[in-house]
Amino acid sequence: MFHLGWFLGQGFGIQPWRGVFDGNAATDWMKPQRYVEMTAALERGGFDFVFIEDTAMVEDTYGGSAAWTLAHGEMAPKNDPLPLVPLMTQGSEHIGVINTMSTIQYQPYTAARLMVTLDHLTDGRAGINVVTSVTHRVAQNFGYDEHLPHDERYAMAGEWMDVVGKLWDSWEPTAIVNDPETPMYADASKVHTIDHRGRYYSVRGPLNTIPGPQRRPVAAQAGNSIPGRELAAQHADTMLAMGHTPEQMKAFREDMHQRLLAHGRKPGDCKIMFLVSPMLAETDAEAWERERARVARTTTPEHIERVLWQLSYISGGTVDFSTFDLDAPMPDILGNGEQSSMRKYVEGNEDKTLREVVTGVRQIGDLGLIGSPDTVAAKMGEIMDEVGGDGFLLYQPSSLNRRTIAEYTDGLSPALRRRGLIRDGYDNVPFRDNLLAF
After folding, report:
1. Cβ-contact 54, 99 below 8 angstroms
2. Where are the extended beta strands (E) located within 124-175?
3. Which end of the chain has fewer CB atoms within 10 angstroms, the N or the C?
4. Phi and psi at residue 292, to the nearest 5°
5. Cβ neighbours of 266 (radius 10 Å)
6. Residue among 408, 105, 394 at smallest CA distance from 276
7. C-alpha triplet 424, 273, 17: angle, nearest 5°
8. What letter does residue 409 receive in the DSSP assignment?
9. pLDDT for residue 40 is more than 80
10. How far apart are alpha carbons 191 and 202 in whole angstroms?
11. Distance CA 422, CA 438 (A)
12. With helix as H, strand as E and coil as C, how does 274-339 read?
């Protein structure tokens, strides 16, 4: 068996809202019931978790203005994901919810306290995706003139996670006595300061709230660069990985297993979830018709401009791709943002024009998962057999469309279950235990 996660790619955001949203697109993305219904449906479909992406800025690198961003609702408007976590678990009993928190937006003490609170409010189903943020635009909203260099911000994130972990452990398991006669609610000898003094943080502790059901909420990581992999190997229970071919996926998983072992952990301690965007429909013919329509859209001016916008964003806000000649060679630029994502566009494409790259490269691939639920389920099983595990993180731009959700939870999930590939129920245990059950 393998695990399933759902990537909520716009968090509490509006885009894309034209033609793919059932209801009033301008307002319904803010309606709480959408999120409760989505999580309940995904639990019915045997998903382990929802993974909520976030970023805190209005991007204005492309064209030197926020005009394109706001005209297309691209990553803005977007509300904070943290209030979604207890909300989304109200209509479900087992599925976990992972929210994104940036190490430059939250001090470790604030993050540790928030996550323990969410773990209590969800009865042990809270998770945290630790990110370092991508662009100067985010950094400039939190007291920085510009963002830290890529590798330095991962060094900062490593210390951040060390501090958060110490705070989560600042109460011993037997610290709570709960004796009103003595009186002694907690034994002070079992609640400890952490007295951390490091390069980036100075935190006394202890945490001023009691440990949650999981003690340590599930930790996730999404960076695929070497520093990102190291952070995951040290701290993560699950990680997002880009899946391009089964061979690449297997090599990535083997690399991560070696890193886990080097940090004294077992390979099964971190579930590697490959991000993929299948093309699903009721029949194979309809799915291929949808795929042909998608390919046809890649050469349109709107698609080209969207990818140029994305390149400007993932460069870290350091490069405006609107300034380049589309018919000149692809610029050899990695920037200071999502370097592993930029490599997907740059490396191996040195002999191509920028136009050829933006119309031909898919950041999130489909792995050939095109067809009816039965066809896609069989192919997913074949891929996981070759890769060895651990599962797929599924992404669709129309994540809040009820029909899209139903195609997966009531179409794909039953087909996977008939093959014994995904869970057919949950143990009554916290999120981490379900995640690490197989």
Report:
1. yes
2. 126-131
3. C
4. -60, -35
5. 10
6. 394
7. 90
8. I
9. yes
10. 19
11. 10
12. EEECCEECCCHHHHHHHHHHHHHHCCCHHHHHHHHHHHHHHCCCCCCHHHCCCCCECCCCCCCCCH
Contact 94, 147 (CB under 8 A): no
Backbone angles phi, psi at 230, to 5 degrees: -65, -40
Q: How many residues does the chain have?
A: 438
In order of 131, 151, 194, 200, 203, the CA distances from 197 in angstroms are 22, 21, 9, 8, 7
Q: Average the pLDDT over 398-404 and give the result.
A: 80
Best CA proximity match to 63, nearest among 313, 354, 352: 313
Tokens 């991962």 belong to 154
Q: Is the pLDDT of residue 15 over 70?
A: no
**AA identity, residue 203:** V
Check residues 11 and 142 and name the one with the higher pLDDT: 142
Q: How far apart are CA 255 and CA 426, in angstroms?
A: 30
Q: What is the mean pLDDT of residues 385-409?
A: 90
Q: Is the model's pLDDT at 291 over the cut of 60?
A: yes
Contact 304, 331 (CB under 8 A): no
Q: Which two three-digit tokens encode residue 23?
A: 């209801």
pLDDT at 418: 98
Structure tokens at 362: 């898919």
Rg of the chain (C-alpha set): 22
Q: Is the pLDDT of residue 286 over 90?
A: yes
Query: Which of 203, 172, 204 has its CA nearest to residue 188?
Result: 172
DSSP 329: B
Mean pLDDT, range 149-163, rounded to an integer: 96
The span from the CA of 213 to the CA of 159, in Å, is: 24
Q: Span 418-437, mean pLDDT?
A: 95
Q: In this model, does residue 403 exceed pLDDT 70?
A: yes
User: What token pair was written down for 131?
Assistant: 């990110």
pLDDT tens-digit profile of 202-225?
999 999 999 999 999 999 999 899
Residue 181 scores a pLDDT above 70: yes
Residue 61 is given by DSSP the state: -
Q: What span, in angstroms and rounded, lies between the C-alpha atoms of 31 and 407?
A: 22
Q: Is 365 helix (H, G, I), strand (E, B) or coil?
A: coil
Place of tokens 């651990």: 390
Q: Note the pLDDT of residue 24.
A: 62
The per-residue pLDDT for 23 is 62
pLDDT at residue 27 greater than cutoff 80: no
DSSP 3-state of 97: strand
For tokens 């939250």, the residue is 106
